[in-house]
Specification:
Elements: H1 3-23, H2 31-51, H3 60-84
Helix pairs in contact: 1-2, 1-3, 2-3
Length: 85
């Protein structure tokens, strides 16, 4: 993974975290945590979706969609653990 690719994932992850927080209102962890979750979600979406045969293309919008899906999945999983406490 090149430095440029990593930077794009980080920027897209921040956008995806914000979008996921907006889509899943009430399940987020606050703005800063949602942005961090978005970055992690970008890695998850970038890894998981191609393995499931889901491709949104290599353009920026496709990467944002993929990262947002990864962030939503991560927020839902973290929400399950938070409710158990």
């Amino acid at each position: 993974m090149s430095g440029e690719h990593l930077l794009i994932i980080l920027v897209v992850g921040v956008v995806a975290g914000w979008l996921a927080g907006q889509i899943l209102r009430g399940t987020g962890f606050g703005l800063v945590a949602d942005l961090c979750i978005g970055i992690i979600g970008a890695f998850i979406g970038n890894w998981l979706l191609p393995r499931l045969g889901i491709h949104f293309g290599a353009h920026l919008l496709g990467q944002i969609i993929s990262a947002t899906i990864g962030a939503i999945v991560l927020l839902l999983i973290l929400g399950l653990f938070r409710r158990r406490r």
